[in-house]
Amino acid sequence: MKLTTLTIASAIALTAAVPAFAQTTSAKAGAELTVRTDPTIAAPITGVLALNEEVTIEGCLEDVSWCKVTAADAEGWASGQYLYVEDNANAVPLVDMAGNPEELVIITQTEEGVSQGDQNGAAVATATVGALTAFALGGPVGAIVASGIAGTAVGAAAVEPTPDTLTYVAANPVDTVYLDGEVVVGAIVPAEITTFEVPQPEYRYLNVNNLPVLVDAETGTIVQIIR
Fold first, then answer.
1. Which residues does the UniProt record annotate as the domain SH3b (predicted)?
2. What residues form DSSP beta bridges with 214?
3. Greatest CA span in the chain, whole angstroms?
4. Which residues have CB under 8 Å from 52's CB, separation 6+?
5. Domain parsing of the chain, residue ranges
6. Which of 72, 209, 226, 227 yields a CA-CA distance of 20 to 30 A from 21?
7. How confident is the model at residue 91 (pLDDT cuts 50, 70, 90)?
């Protein structure tokens, strides 16, 4: 991915696809969502958005894979896949608007230099071994956002991890595995990725994109991010 000096290419005007959102600059997080310094899964973490937390959109990459956001306690880049806007009771994922650049503030590329995000992205490109996939129905955003509107994260742990499990994970760090896509509760780790035992047999753990996570031992679904 090339990322260079950022410029705003167009103003927000969501009238083409969703008239109710004209001049909207805010969205909500459809999952507990990591905010990073640059638009890449390897970038340092600056904060975490709570489920349904409102953010101000400063701009998005053209494919809306990442958006620059500002929230109460976090500022940086968040995965556009898990950001949505509301139209009455309906959630409209930002990625649904990616086909028409007139509908969002688009952050474009220039040729003035390469940012740290480029360097991080280049390092990850050679190490990425798979992709996180959505849990359940409706695709990545549909599943997560639908759960977010309901107030319950899809794929959350049915049984709370015990203190022994959390202590074990902290005391036994493992190398990170880089997977395309942001780490959220409900995403599924590919079956071919190695996971590790914890004291609770219903769970296993691994480190994805520099975040330790517990997964369901049978399905590989992320049930908790250990921060």
1. 33-83
2. 205, 224
3. 53
4. 28, 29, 30, 148, 149, 151
5. 7-117, 139-225
6. 72
7. confident
